[in-house]
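Service request form, structural biology core

Requester: graduate student, group of Dr. S.
Request type: structure prediction, single chain
Budget code: on file
Notes: please return the result as structure tokens.

Sequence provided:
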Amino acid sequence: MSDPIFVSVDVETAGPYPGAFSLLSIGACKVDQPDMQFEALLKPVGDRFDPDALRVTGLSMETLRHTGLPPQSAMAGFADWLASLGPAAADRIFVGLNAPFDWAFVNHYFWAYHGSNPFGFSALDIKAYFMGATGCSWADARSSVMAKRLNPRSSGDHNALHDACYQAELFRLMRTR
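Core staff response, request fulfilled:
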């Protein structure tokens, strides 16, 4: 059996949960080869949005209606990219910082617009991993605390691809200590 392939994933959305709110941006990179990247901006599937969510990301529902990929195309592209990362027998492990949030959108969109989820049915949460590795409290399992302990070179900025690469760096640093 092949070693698992860890994939750092980050999303930006129009609101707090899938189904009612749209997935707007996906960024991903292979954790151990972060130059292997995927990025997609998606057309919104509805009009509902949380103004605070859009303010944080700088994304525009109107712009994405014209420039974003249809969800079917974005998810097919993401699945193809995931398949290109290594042997078909290797599990693709979804890695996220607050993985439950990002996972919910990616899982929903894969099933709704692609028919299956290449990640299977689970994800690895960097916050929980950090707690286990350091013994810290949940309150201290924030990226700002992680950054102070791990000294990454990059930082997050609410761009899905940039954040996926930042998360990958944090996860690599945790695994090497």
